Amino acid sequence: MTRPCNDSFLRALLKEPTAHTPVWLMRQAGRYLPEYRETRARAGSFMQLCMNPGLACEVTLQPLARYDLDAAILFSDILTVPDAMGLGLYFTDGEGPRFERPLREEWAIRDLSAPDPWDHLRYVMDAVTEIRRALNNSVPLIGFSGSPYTLACYMVEGASSTDYRRIKSMLYDRPDLLHHILAVTADAVGAYLNAQIESGAQAVMIFDSWGGSLSPAAYREFSLHYMQRVLATLIREKDGERVPSIVFTKGGGLWLESIADIGCDAVGLDWTIDIDEARRRVGDRVALQGNIDPAVLFASPATIAAEARKVLDGYGAAQTGHVFNLGHGISQFTPPEHVTALVDAVHQHSRLLRQKCS
After folding, report:
1. Is 154 designated active site?
2. Among 11, 40, 98, 279, the one annotated catalytic
3. Residue-wise over 106-144: b if at least 16 C-beta within 10 A, else e?
4. Adjacent-strand bridge partners of 145
5. Digit-coded pLDDT (tens) for 192-201
6. Active site residue 27
7. Catalytic residue chosen out of the listed positions 3, 31, 66, 122
8. Digit-coded pLDDT (tens) for 294-316
C-alpha cells in the first residue's frame, strides 16, 4: 500500500514538509451543499443515509468534486456507537438527535457493554471500504468517532444539552457510574476506530465536542484520561504506513499542553485561541489543525481570503505541521462558492510562504 497521490494531509500530521498547507473542513459533506440535500432526500432519512454504504460514499465524495480539498472524511455520525449499544438513536426535525433509552438507571449503566464494530457497525466499515475504493488513492480518508465523554453526554442526557444537568449531576454525585460508562465507551471507541483503520481509514480523529464544558479538574479526569485510553489502543501502522490521530476538544484552549501529551499526532483548535499562541505552547510535540472561525465563510470572498492569510501567517513562515481547517463544523447556511475562496486562498498563500522561506 502506498500513500495517496496527494499525501500532504498525512505529511502535515507527521510534521513532514509539504508543498502547500493541506486543508479540509469539519462537516465538509453536509447541508450547505445542494447535492447533499438531494441525496439526503433520496435516502429518506439521515440514519438511512448513514446506514447505506453506497449513499455514504456518494456524499463523502461530493465536496471533493467541488473543491480542491486535501482529505476526505467518512460520512457518518458520532452517535452510531451508543446506538449500537442499544440506546435507540433517532432524529427529529428541528430537534436533532435523541435516544429512546438514555442511561438513567443504575442497572442499565451496569449492563452497558461495548458492541462488536464488525457486527453492529458493519455498515460503517463497508462505507469506509467503498469510499477508499472510490477515492482511488487520490487523497487520504479520515475515520472518526466522538470522544468517550461527548458520547456519554448524549447517552445520559438523551439529547443535546445546554446545561449538562444530568451528566454533571452524575459526575459529582455518582462518579463511579460515570466512570463505568466512560470505561465501556472508551473500549467501544477504540475498537470502532481500529475497525475503521482495518477497513481503510488512513487517519482518525476524536471529536470531543462537549469536553470544553468541564472544569479543569473534571476535564482531566472524565475526558482527557479516556481519550488517552483510546489512543493507547489504536493501530499506529497499517500496510507499512503510519496512521496519524487527531484530538479536537471544542473549547479546549485551556488544556492544549495536556492534550498534546496524551499520544495524539495533532491537536485540533477551535477559533477562540490564536494559532501562534497555540504553537508557542505546544512547540513541536504535535501538529496543529485549524482554526478559522466558521462564520468567516458568511463574509465576502476577499474577506475570507484575508482571514485565511491571517491564520497561515499566524502559524508562521515555516508551515510544517499545520493542517488548515475551521474551528468547528461548517454551517448549513454557508454559500458553497465561499468554500472555493477559502480553499484557493489557503493553497495559494501557503505556497507563497514556502517560496519566501526557500
Report:
1. yes
2. 40
3. eeebeebebbebeebbbebbbbbbbbbebbeeebbbbbb
4. 206
5. 999 999 999 9
6. yes
7. 31
8. 999 999 999 999 999 999 999 98
Catalytic residue list contains 37: no
Is the pTM value of this prediction over 0.85? yes
Q: Is 136 left (phi over 0), alpha (psi -120 to 50) or beta?
A: left
- Among 337, 341, 36, 4, smallest CA distance to 201 is for 4
Our answer to whether residue 354 is catalytic in this structure is: no
CB of 323 within 8 A of CB of 288?
yes
* Active-site annotation holds for 11: no
pLDDT one-digit tens code per residue, 334-346: 999 999 999 999 9
Exactly one of 70, 77, 83, 265 is catalytic; name it: 77
Q: Which of 7, 11, 27, 354 is catalytic?
A: 27
3-state secondary structure 204-255: EEEEECCHHHCCHHHHHHHHHHHHHHHHHHCCCEECCEECCEEEEECCCHHH
Which three three-digit cell numbers place residue 11?
505529511
Q: Residue count of the chain, please give it.
A: 358
